Every structure is written in C-alpha cells, then in structure tokens.
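Bump. Still looking for DNase1 protein structure tokens.
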Amino acid sequence: MQFSIFSLLGSAALAAATNTVTFKSLDDVTRTVHFTPNSGLASVESVDVPGNGEVKVEIPEAWIGNWYAVSEGADNAAGMLGEVAFNGWNGLTYFDVSAIVDPSDHSGVKKMWPASGSDPISGCDFFPCPNAYYLPDDVQTKVTSETDLICTLGNNGVISRRDVDDHHESPSYKRDFVQGK
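Sorry for the wait, here they are.
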C-alpha cells in the first residue's frame, strides 16, 4: 500500500511540473520578449523584463517555438533567438541560441541553460562564438531532462554565469530536434 501511495505522489509531482523560462537582464535596459510558436501551437504573451531584473514565464506543455528580445525604444525586429522544444522526443527539452536571423544583435538573447545550473549551455556572453547557430545546418542544439530554463538578456560585459568561457564541451544535436522534426 505504501508503495502505491508513493508512486501516486511521484506521478502527481511530475504531472504538476510546468515548463518555464526565467529571463534575466544583465544590464539596465528594459526589454520586451516576443514569443513565436510553431504553427498550430499555443501563443505565449510577450513580457517586459525590467533592466537588471528577471521574469519567469510559464510555457505550455509540448511547446515548440522561439523568442527574441527588443530593447525599450527600438523597432520590433527579430534578432538573436532563443529556441526551444519542451517535452520533445523522449520527453526531453531541446534548446539553442540562434544567430541565423540577425547575427549582429549583441544586446538581446545571450545564453540559455537548465535552471539547476548544470550544463549544457547554448549561446555566449560575447558574440560571435562557437556555441550558437549561425547556419541552418550547424549542430548546436542542446538537450536536458529539465523543464526550467534560464535565458540571459543584455550586454554588461560581465560573465553571466560562473566564470566559464564561451566554448562548452557538452554534446550538440541537429536543429531538427528543437524544431520538433
């Protein structure tokens, strides 16, 4: 009987887990984060991230899409992208930072990693770097079993996470995973 109660509690905890992205600003600029879901998936409302602040956003189950950040007062144009496939193949989370749309955006999306602080990391503090997508056939997608991610925004010249360099030795995968293909 105890085993079934513990199993039930464990299942309930897993069912209650939500997908989240915490956006952390590295500077004093307020930005609006705009989300674009893959076709047929739920929309996620844009959020304002105050300068030097952070905002946690809940993302729908099995959501696949991307986001970009626009600095206050700037034109709404996609720049560096954060891309994710939550609850993807084998229930894993696939993510990456992509410079394909606008590699000159050095003040929007910077880095992404699992909220527990463990590897893998996509993106970098200073672009260009070898840890982001620049071409569609680059192999840069990261994978984690976590459903909570951190995404840094902005440009203050300070390392955003520990004192690590921007070259990370974690495995990378083809872009198809983050696009749900």
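The two ends are 42 Å apart (CA to CA).

Edit: fixed formatting.
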